[in-house]
Amino acid sequence: MIHKILSIWLSFCLCSIAFAQDSFQIKGSVINANTLKPIEGANIICENLFATSSLTGKFTIKNIIKGSYIFKISRIGYSPETLTILVGPGMKEVIVSLNATTTALEEVEVHHKTKKRKTKESPIVSHIVSKEFLDKNRENSLMQTLKKIPGVSTINIGSGQSKPVIRGLGFNRISVIQNGIKHEAQQWGSDHGLEIDQYGIKNIQVIKGPASLLYGSDAIAGVVDIQPSKIPSRNSFNGEVDLLAESNNDLLGVSAGIQARKEKWFYRGRLTFRDYGDYKVPTDEIRYENYIFELHNNYLRNTAGKEANVGFSIGYASDKIKSETFFSNVNAKNGFFANAHGLEVRTSSIDYDRSNRDIDLPFHKVNHFKITNNTSIVSGIHTFHFDLGYQNNLREEHSEPVPHGYMPKPSDSKERGFNKHTYSLNGRDVFKLNDKHTTIAGINIEFQENTINGWGFLIPEYSRFTAGAFIYDQFEIRPDLHFQAGLRYDYGFLDTKSYYDWYPSTINNSDGTTSFVNLQRAQNKTLDFGNISTSVGLSYIRKNTTYKINLGKSFRMPLTNELTSDGVNYHMYRYEKGNSDLDVEESYQLDIDIDHTTKKFGVRISPFINFFDNYIYLNPTPNYYETLQIYEYTQSKVFRVGGEISTNITLFKNLQLDASLEYVYSRQTSGPKKDFTLPFSPPLSSLFTASYQFKNLFFLKRPQLMANYRITAAQDEIVPPEERTDGYQVLHMFLLTELDIFKHGPPWKIRLKLNNVFNTKYYDHTSFYRLIDVPEAGRNISVSLTVPF
Predict the structure, then answer these.
(1) Domain positions in the chain
(2) Rounded to an integer, what distance in angstroms lies between the CA atom of residue 191 and that of residue 768?
(3) What number of other Cβ atoms are within 10 A of residue 444's Cβ?
(4) Where is 645: in which H helix or E strand?
(5) Nearest CA to 81 among 61, 96, 65?
(6) Dihedral angle, C-alpha 52, 54, 57, 63, nearest 10 °
(7) Cα–Cα distance, 629 to 619 (Å, whole number)
(8) How far apart are the C-alpha atoms of 502 and 510, rounded to whole Å?
(9) How far apart are CA 168 and CA 685, in angstroms?
């Protein structure tokens, strides 16, 4: 069904392009009746039709059917004119003359700060990601695209999934926000990616450091805030079609989006479909658990996948009220590298090498449905913001049914299933008591309910409720000096349900008899948590340099898997056991940020110091369960220090050089792993980028050639049973250009990328598959085309 919908949508978008080329269009000019000079910014308006005159006074209105139209032409400082235009074959260019008026206007002062200025005034260390950055650096997933930001890395799960890591911390220590609502899936799993369509996203703010003050639990390490796009212009209709192809995994993808607005009502829509095969790695064998697995033609067998996404929103905008409701559904099916799911694959009858596009067992299926609403209301000195959200995350993990220990062979392939419902409400009031203070007070409420099924148990069913209230104030001491401070309190509880094995295990009794008992893995239990978050910071802007310092305390509630897990995680080939005595995780962090930017040169230094009073982690023990090593969740004190340095310089007119360096040092200062680092700690890494902007070349407009060269040091700081990772160097090349296919239409955009130019064999320390000796993907050529209309 989804394929039919995608076909219809794509056909509609392509027909819209074709229609635009075959229909009539009005061309004209607006001039001053007295001086005959062109008038810029004049509005040419008819019902459902709109245009604005350019610097030369010219305008064009496309996609008009034959007929008679009445237009009103107006411009501040000129008397409006009404004009009737007959549209049909043989039309001539329209000349509109406006007479200047003599109305005298009083001087008007406009007080408004740009988004860039507001970011400078905030002491929070953040990075604004623009649409231009996303277009230039787009990879297979959103998080892989953001990896080029200093301090941001990823945990990659195959070629189509990944999850964010900020300064060495990931999983539920990072909040991913989309349209004001926290994205809630099964992000605790190391093999679970984010269910977010990266196409159509235009604005992202990445906060590096504790952000629990604004976002509550799970923002202890940072935030990826995916913000709504700008509201469309009045009386407008436009869209785009994105086409993508890649060589390494034979990926084919298409994404089509449209948006339109009349006066106050508007809508947007997007459909995305991607289909890819197994991806290639620069090796022909994988060594795992003392076994060697041969790879057919370098394909990492069973890593193919499909993804189909649909999104739609409808909104209303006036001077006092803005509201937009979003509907989205992300559906994906991803194969899981067969040899990563234990050693049973050696006896499997599945022919994994018969096709590189088959999705065999084991595989994941996930469907994430989301409804959100963002509403803002202006009332006097107050602006009220409300965010409402409902999410349903349905995930299934399938693998070959085989007996394990006392467990007989299951009747089907569904190893685990999770069905999570999340209800969210955010409310905040932004008000200015005077010109010096901007105060924000708000609440966040969230309720989750997660049910399970399948024959493999890891976490029980649970309900989770969290509520928090906060207030913070930004005080303008003077225009170049800003102080910000805030306080927040959160309360939450977790209610877990009991669970018994579906099969009996053998129990030896003290009297020498044997019993067959369905073992209890989880109990009915209710745990509650409360905590305070605070933040205080200072921002000073001196000419081209911005200085920031911020001290914050954040927290994170323990997760269900950390508190109550009791089962085999075959994806990690270990037995995981929770600890119901875990306390709330607390973090104290000092951030400093110095940013010096001029027209041709910029440098930014962002060091931090971080201390965890009770960091939660999965600790390997010397005990075993049915030949599997038991890992138990525990807590310890952790000290971390690190930061990022980035610089850019413009040489000549068209050549720009960028360089960045990032490093994190972590040390456990208590607990069973005292004096060790933390798992998945990223090593010292640097990225060098060169970009040259050419002049127009034949039919190529503004061609730009880019090269990224990443140098990563070896990671010798590990936590057993982790293994060290060698350093590596890898080169990527990009060619970006535009094509003027139609003289009066927007240009088409082409991106040609060559990743891993030399087919280098290397291992990313934070990659999921690195644990089983799988290197990163080999050479890949990708071509993408964006057709706007």
Answers:
(1) 2-98, 135-140+144-788
(2) 7
(3) 22
(4) strand 628-651
(5) 96
(6) -50
(7) 11
(8) 25
(9) 12
The DSSP letter of residue 233 is P
Q: Taking all residues of the chain, what is their mean pLDDT, rounded to a whole number?
A: 88
CA dist 781 and 734 (Å) reads 10
Q: Strand pairing partners for 224? A: 176, 206
User: How does pLDDT run across 20-41, given as a tens digit for each residue?
Assistant: 445 788 888 999 888 888 898 8
CA 128/CA 493 separation, integer angstroms: 34
Integer Cα distance of 454 and 411 in angstroms: 10
pLDDT, position 433? 84
H helices within 236-298, ranges in order?
Answer: none
Any residues with CB less than 8 A from the CB of 286 and at least 6 apart, and which? 292, 293, 295, 339, 772, 773, 774
Which whole-number Å values give the CA distances from 417 to 29, 279, 522, 592, in the listed order?
63, 26, 17, 44
Question: Looking at 99-182, which runs of residues are DSSP E strands?
Answer: 126-129, 152-157, 161-166, 169-170, 174-178, 181-182
Cα distances (angstroms) measured from residue 493 to each of 215, 389, 496, 722: 17, 20, 10, 34
Cβ atoms of 483 and 124 within 8 Å: the answer is no
CB atoms within 10 A of CB 483: 15
Tokens read off for 167: 């300064």
Give the tens place of pLDDT for each residue, 273-313: 999 999 999 999 988 777 788 899 999 999 999 999 999 99
For the 2-98 domain, the top CATH level (class) is: mainly beta
Within 10 Å of residue 722's Cβ, how many Cβ atoms?
Answer: 19
Q: Given a cut of 70, is residue 597 above it in pLDDT?
A: yes
Mean pLDDT of 143-157: 87
pLDDT band at 10 (very low <50, low <70, confident <90, very high): very low
Give residue 342's pLDDT.
Answer: 64
Are 526 and 495 contacting, i.e. CB atoms less than 8 angstroms apart? Answer: yes
Separation CA 261–CA 635 (nearest Å): 53
Cα–Cα distance between 225 and 176 in angstroms, integer?
6
Q: Which helix (H) or strand (E) holds 561?
A: helix 560-564
Question: Model's pTM, two decimal places?
Answer: 0.84
- Is residue 198 within 8 A of residue 183, CB to CB? The reply is no
In terms of pLDDT, which residue wins out, 479 or 653?
479
Among the listed residues 522, 677, 543, 528, the one whose alpha carbon sits nearest the alpha carbon of residue 612: 677
For residue 21, the SS3 value is helix
**Domain 135-140+144-788, CATH class in plain words:** mainly beta
Phi, psi of 158 (to 5 degrees): 75, -160
